[in-house]
């Protein structure tokens, strides 16, 4: 651990007590709790600093050796960490990741027979496993997932382990970390046609569990073929350069036969390079087409999700095409009524004093005129005939009853019209 040791590690007196055997908790609870906490923390920090989640009691003794002192009662510490679930045996961890029923059986048998008695029993520090899994997943996303058009989720396990050596100390820790990612549903493990271990990471756009398919194995095989072609092309390029160099050397020496022989070698190498490059380009185009197909599916899934969300929102809000048409019709009706009201306001509001009163007065006037004319006609019938000669003006004009009636009617008509 080196510099990761706590300050108390340099204190001989305190470390002498911490290195001593742990007494039973019912005898000295303070001593028990202090040593359990100290050594549990030391084990966790050592696993983190060593980048190794797997350890044994013998490994811990070598890590925590202090001169001629070794920590006592490490088996008690281990049993406590097993009881609280901070660690588990490697066998149980493997069983848990293969078969949950088997894991329960092994854990039960381990608790019966006391797995802590064996200093060679391998244990797994679970919090460190989770930390390593987080780091490994982040490393994949930052280094591999950026190349989205080349199906980056399919990775050769051996190559990925080489790239992750700055995160994990050895293959065993790498396998334990992969098992954690498998349990999380972030990775599934498949194999190629020749038995190579291949990883398939979760595609963020995919739903449900990760499934390994034959097409995934084919993608790996194509990548392997492309890698082989790259090496072949580089080898042939070096061969062509060497042949050209040798040909120039023999030309300077005047040996045209040897020069021609090396030039033919160069020509064959260049022809092979062209052929292999064509093969490489075809495989590359297939890979890109597969990547674009995945992207198109993702876009289509987004469209579907958007359409479903839009429909659900309309339904939740109670909006439909029929209701929209009905609302628009109501708006048209309301606008028509408003227009009629506006026209009526612009035309002016008729008043009783002008229209209705005029009509009533006109009717009354006509009735009066008709009645008066009838009375006048009756009066005229009773009067004697008018003399044929015009009366003398000396006596003054005499007004007849008809003239008086006519004047009375005219006066009433005048008053009515003035009143209006």
UniProtKB/TrEMBL annotation:
Pfam families: Snf7, WHD_CHMP7, WHD_CHMP7_1st. Residues 129-202 form the CHMP7 winged helix domain. One of its GO terms (cellular component) is cytoplasmic side of plasma membrane. Residues 219-286 form a coiled coil. Residues 383-408 are annotated as: Disordered. Belongs to the SNF7 family. This is Charged multivesicular body protein 7. It comes from Wuchereria bancrofti. The lineage of its organism: Eukaryota, Metazoa, Ecdysozoa, Nematoda, Chromadorea.
